Amino acid sequence: MACVETSDDRVGEVLLKRVMQEQLDEMLSSEVPVVVSAETQELESEQEQKMVLQLAVMIRTIGDAFKENRELDDVIDGMVGQMTSKTSYWNLVEKVFEDGQITWERIAVLFYVAGRIAVKVVIAHLPELVKDILKWTLEYFRSKLLDWIQKHGGWMNSFAALARVQVERISSMSARSSGLILVFLGGVIMGSVITWKLARRT
């Protein structure tokens, strides 16, 4: 059991770093930080490496359906200045799982949006925030999602669900999933502002 847990944790960490780095690598900026470094936790087997590669492609395909979404971009832009602490970032992340429902699709959306936020903070000339976003997302993943992943058969069991979502994204962007991302981000500015103001009082 411990071996499986370690594997799911390790795959999740490397996958998040890869998804973030791929989006950062598209930027033509000297400020782009390296997320995947020599310190990156190594994968133990070729099977894990293949899994991360395939999952990264699936997450990218799902996320790319939202890439041209101007509304999403505007909401993320509005949030960049509000992410002042782990608490404010976690309040944002909680919007993905607001109704208490964790799904493979929502985990994929979280990883993708973490990468989009990383890109936005670099554009805003705040590249030092990228490491915080990575750290806060990993802490959230380990604290709130890892147990669910293990109880649902580990990352290996994500492929069928993500493949179905991927096909839906390619054929047409569903209103429900578009709404999911906007629910994730829609109420964020208000929550982040409140958290930020409370944090400044202490």
UniProtKB/TrEMBL annotation:
Alphabetical list of SUPFAM superfamilies matching this protein: Bcl-2 inhibitors of programmed cell death
Residue ranges of every copy of the Bcl-2 Bcl-2 homology region 1-3 domain listed in the record: 59-155
Superkingdom of the source species: Eukaryota
Spans traversing the lipid bilayer: 179-199
GO CC annotation terms, alphabetical: mitochondrial outer membrane
UniProt keywords, alphabetically: Apoptosis, Membrane, Transmembrane, Transmembrane helix
InterPro entries, per database record: Bcl-2-like_sf (IPR036834), Bcl-2_BH1-3 (IPR046371), Bcl-2_fam (IPR026298), Bcl2-like (IPR002475)
GO BP annotations listed: extrinsic apoptotic signaling pathway in absence of ligand; intrinsic apoptotic signaling pathway in response to DNA damage; mitochondrial fusion; regulation of apoptotic process; release of cytochrome c from mitochondria
GO molecular function, one term: channel activity
Family of the protein in this entry: Belongs to the Bcl-2 family.
Protein's recorded name: Bcl-2 Bcl-2 homology region 1-3 domain-containing protein
Organism per entry: Oncorhynchus tshawytscha
